Amino acid sequence: MSKPTGDFLKILEERVKNELQCPACHSRKFKFSNTYLTCESCKTEYGIDVASRICSFSPALTMNKTKNEIMEWWGDLYEQCYAEGDSILSEESLEKDLIDLEDMFNKREHLAYVEMLPLLKVSKGLRVLEIGPGGGGHAALFARHGAHMTSLDITPSRAVSTALKLSHVGDKNGFSCQGDSENLPFADNTFDVVYSNGVLHHTTSTKKAVDEVYRVLKPGGKTVLMLYSRHSAEYWVNIVPRAILNGEIFYLNEENWIGRVTEGKPKFGKVKNPITRVYSAKEIKDLLSSFEMVSLRKGSFHFNNFMIPGLNKFRNWILTKMGLKRHPGCKIVYGEPRFIDTKTELKLGKYIGYGWNIVGEKPFK
Ligand SMILES: [Zn+2]
Fold first, then answer.
1. What does residue 221 show for φ and ψ, rounded to 5 degrees?
2. So what's the pLDDT on residue 41?
3. Res 303: pLDDT
4. Per-residue pLDDT at 84
5. What is the mean pLDDT for each group of 10 consecutive residues in the chain (365 residues)?
6. How far apart are CA 12 and CA 20, in angstroms?
7. Which domains are assigned to the chain?
8. Measured between alpha carbons, how far is 285 from 259 in angstroms, rounded to an integer?
9. What global pTM score does this model have?
10. Ligand 1: distance of its center to the CA of 167 in Å?
11. Which of 119, 149, 221, 329 has the fewest CB atoms inside 10 Å of its own CB, making it the most exposed?
């Protein structure tokens, strides 16, 4: 693994001054050393790992059973998708991956390209928070476009992965920490933009997480979110039939039976994805009622979003016959090159896609 560059403690010092707040008592006063960030008010100690360039605000022992399962499941998926790529990452390879990633996001009409990058072009150095950066590809792309990046993930390996990428890109002053989206370690009115792509529907209380996004945004600041869509091919023709077949639809809560059949299967542990929620347009508007809705559009549909055995292989076979190639930009965010949306799929996605692409603004009061 390549060595981190820049001075992590300087980065931390700047965040202590401008962003951080104790998640236990809400004090803004900290002391810090090479190993701990200590709240001067309640004396809680938060671990610092200088080598990995992260700070931990919610270690496993402080979290409840479901949150530990969420951390374990997403840690398993990190190992499946990102661990190998991170082990051979360099500044040069990341640069190439990010160029490919931006091209892929452009062709897929992705939230990161359509809704997010135009915001970053308005002015350099915007304070941006990403919640749930996954392998850090999106955060690194935003830093490359001049954002002053902070990221938070509940899963330690994902926070480390993001820290590694942020140390190689942009101003190299990106900050990554481990913590809970429902109790953010940041002060009120801090960020210009809060971005979160397909994450907040996986936490125990999406409402609490959205309220936290509102709290840490500056008035006039924007949140750019992707949350799953209820009225989509993926939900009605894939997720629901699977949950009927395995019987879990009849005795589990909705977010739990959806969780069990989405995002993949455990490989290194036993825990399945605990929680996934889906939203109708009305449910999105209710959830974000404290924001002014700037834009809301549906997207993301593939012809393999149906519960038919072998359909994924069949789609890949057809697309190969059509002369198409797997896009290399998928590697840094999905762990492998993939066939991206065809023009027909993009069009259908506007009606039956699985993702709501949302921009909300925190009003001036
Ligand atoms: Zn405190």
1. -75, 160
2. 96
3. 86
4. 92
5. 62 96 96 92 95 91 91 94 93 96 97 97 93 96 97 97 94 94 97 98 97 98 98 95 95 96 92 96 97 97 83 88 92 90 94 97 93
6. 9
7. 60-361 (3.40.50.150)
8. 22
9. 0.95
10. 28
11. 119
Distance from C-alpha of 226 to C-alpha of 198, rounded to nearest angstrom: 5
Would strands 36-39 and 45-49 be described as parallel, antiparallel, or unpaired?
antiparallel
Q: Where are the beta strands (DSSP E) in the chain?
A: 30-32, 36-39, 45-49, 54-56, 127-131, 148-153, 175-178, 191-197, 217-228, 292-299, 355-361
What spacing in Å lies between the alpha carbon of 209 and ligand 1's midpoint? 20
Q: How far apart are CA 105 and CA 114, in angstroms?
A: 8
Residue type, 36: Y
**Centroid of ligand 1 to alpha carbon of 350 (angstroms):** 45
Q: Is the dihedral of CA 67, 69, 75, 77 positive or negative?
A: negative
Residue 310 neighbours by CB distance under 10 Å? 9
Give me ligand 1 centre to Cα 231, in Å.
43
Amino acid present at 360: G
Residues with Cβ within 5 Å of ion ligand 1? 22, 24-25, 27, 39, 41-42, 44
Q: Fill in the DSSP letter of residue 293.
A: E
Cβ atoms of residues 297 and 357 within 8 Å: yes
Q: How far, in Å, is the centroid of ligand 1 from the Cα of 23? A: 7
Find all residues with CB under 8 Å of 234, minimum gap 6, and list them: 228, 301, 305, 354
What tokens does 304 get?
A: 């393999």
pLDDT value for 312: 84
The count of C-alpha atoms lying within 13 angstroms of the C-alpha of 298, restricted to the half-sphere facing its C-beta, is 22
Expressed in angstroms and rounded, the spacing between residue 32 Cα and the centre of ligand 1 is 13
